[in-house]
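Why do we care about 3D structure at all? Because function follows from shape, and shape follows, mostly, from sequence. That is the central idea of this module. The next example makes it concrete: a single protein chain, its amino acid sequence, and then its structure expressed as tokens.
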Amino acid sequence: MTGVELAAATGAISEISGGSDFSLISLLFEADIVVQFVMLVLVIASIWSWAIIIEKWFALASVRKKSAQYEEAFWSGRLDEVEARPGVGTDPAARVFSSISREWNDARRGVASESEARAMVERAERSMRAAVDREMNNQSGGIGVLATVASASPFIGLFGTVWGIMNAFLKIGEAGDASLVTTAGPIAEALFATGLGLVAAIPATIFYNKFSTDLNRLADQLDTFAQDVLVRLSRRGSETAGR
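And the structure:
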């Protein structure tokens, strides 16, 4: 294609489109007010979900690492330091152990009878169950937002799509013309709303599934640690009660 032919083709395209700018920014500012509101909601939802994703990514990694380190110190034989300050630290395992620290110290000092030992273990088990549930509730904050964004964003974008296509048909009816000049703008706005809905929903879905898996692993880790502590506490209480 020669330079003259290319210039002529470019001029023809410009004439057909009426000199319209179909960049993303122009689509956002020239869209219908309802479509603009839909786009704004989707942009906010996407930014909100990414903020949660970044925060949870580092928070859960840190929590699992600290809990693993605490458990390693607990079972490695350095129990004197750990038992003296059971609640020190920000990791869930330390807080779970601190929930039964009184019963643990009672077992170390000795209990009067076998029935007292059983009652002590039962109290400790209830405390640890509540502590594990509390820790999981604390760590799961924000996950519900990702689930909401993942499920609602495509439908919000679809609403913007339907509205944009409706505007396209209204303009066709008003102008009596179904050419690209009449329909290109509203259809582009509609497709843009659909795209924003997917942009918000896809990362939220992926990371919701990832964080749900991470939380399940953390819950299993804490539950296993709690059960191991209860077994050791029960054994120590029984030994001291039998003396």
